[in-house]
Specification:
By secondary structure, the chain is mainly α. Helices cover 49% and strands 10% of the residues.
């Protein structure tokens, strides 16, 4: 699982990472699950950084959800059991 996170919009760091992975053939076998998280291309009202990140889906809970959604079900179950 690879998740990139940036405060920019589509076409930034995440796109460069995908380009490099593609050029090296890392994505050819479909074994790497990749998500690029960026700020949405919408206007956000000014607020605290924490609230703005939460609204954009870039806060800690949204990042954890993205990673968990990408993990195979049995891996998530093991991770959850270790924390309990």
């Amino acid at each position: 699982v690879l998740v990139t996170l940036e405060e920019g919009s589509t076409g930034g760091f995440g796109a460069m990472v995908l380009h490099c992975l593609s050029a090296r053939g890392v994505l050819d076998e479909g074994r790497v699950r990749v998500r690029t998280l960026t700020l949405p291309d919408v206007y956000q009202d000014h607020d605290t950084p924490e609230r703005m990140y939460a609204q954009a889906g870039l806060d800690a809970s949204a990042i954890v959800k993205t990673v968990r959604d990408l993990l195979p079900a049995q891996q998530v179950k093991r991770t959850h059991l270790r924390r309990a």
